[in-house]
Amino acid sequence: MTAETSQTLDRGLRVLKLLADTDHGLTVTELSLRLGVNRTVVYRLLATLEQHALIRRDLGGRARVGLGVLRLGRQVHPLVREAAMPALRSLAEDIGATAHLTLVDGADALAVAVVEPTWTDYHVAYRAGFRHPLDRGAAGKAILAARQHPMADPGYTLTHGELEAGACGAAAPLLGVTGVEGSVGVVMLADVVPERVGERVVEAAREVAEALS
């Protein structure tokens, strides 16, 4: 801690991080031990966070992340979308295919930003807000590949006809971005995705990750 930081705020944020890392919640005693502070301090922190709906306590007294965190999380999408747009525009124009940024939303992959090329005669229609299961389509499968190999770069994922007949997809996961799980990809009408497309998608995903870091 430095003179410019707030010890109470720091502890409150640490509480939220600890609760976010568990599915079963934590008791006051468990939080006290992990934070290295007495139970009275923890009670005050939880009471304040509960007032803002950032945590909730069940009947057994275990604290869990509250719905207020979800409301804050929804505001992340516009910020991420804005940061990603330059790389998506460049990708769409370079490849001549619809480019998209996809983020995890529960068990689904959710397209939060889409850019269509301006110079092609036709391209696949793909809209922001489109969602699909993570295990279908290149965007979701790229995210799952990053989950399965967290210490390695999984490269890019290719799919054909999984979300739309005759359409191919290529996507690469966002790597090294704390708190954001997603992918960058393109969708095109083709029988086979050219190798250059996969490499270009990886480059675009890296650009977006750098913009968000």
Automatic annotation (TrEMBL):
Keywords attached to this entry: DNA-binding, Transcription, Transcription regulation
Domain of life of the source: Bacteria
A single MF term (Gene Ontology): DNA binding
Tagged with keyword Repeat: no
Residue ranges annotated for the IclR-ED domain, each copy included: 68-213
Occurrences of domain HTH iclR-type (ranges): 6-67
One Pfam entry name: IclR_C
Xref: CDD domains: HTH_ARSR
GO terms, biological process: negative regulation of DNA-templated transcription
Keyword DNA-binding attributed: yes
Protein name per its UniProtKB record: Differentiation regulon
Record organism: Streptomyces viridochromogenes (strain DSM 40736 / JCM 4977 / BCRC 1201 / Tue 494)
